[in-house]
# Entry
Amino acid sequence: MMTRQQAEKRGLTPRMAHSRLGGRRLRAEIMGFGPSPATRRLMDRLNIDVQSIDLIELNEAFAAQALAVMNDLRLDPARVNVNGGAIALGHPVGASGAILPVKLMYEMARSGARTGLVTMCIGGGQGISMLFEREGA
# Structure
């Protein structure tokens, strides 16, 4: 990731833009559920409905965690982790912040999706959500 100015300076074409970020903190005992209130906060800030997002990359710390977040946000499973998540594909602990935006970028380009959401749980009850928009869409 880099700024538009850095991309242009290096002769690179931006593929997607990071729009906004939302974060929330819950009690540590509720580890894994943070993406839900983080996403709600982000959607409220942007005055949009999560149902209007084309694709979602949801970090899967474990199956019950991912399902709880999907259920709470009423996410359409057909738009979540469309090429498989961490449970199916695997990746190192701590790599979600790098892997999920890249997976989203390639799938947005492949499918023609305009908007995408990356959401992750973070140790200690935290959660984060980031909205991306495909350049040229």
Remarks:
- The chain has a mean pLDDT of 88.
- The longest helix spans residues 96-111.
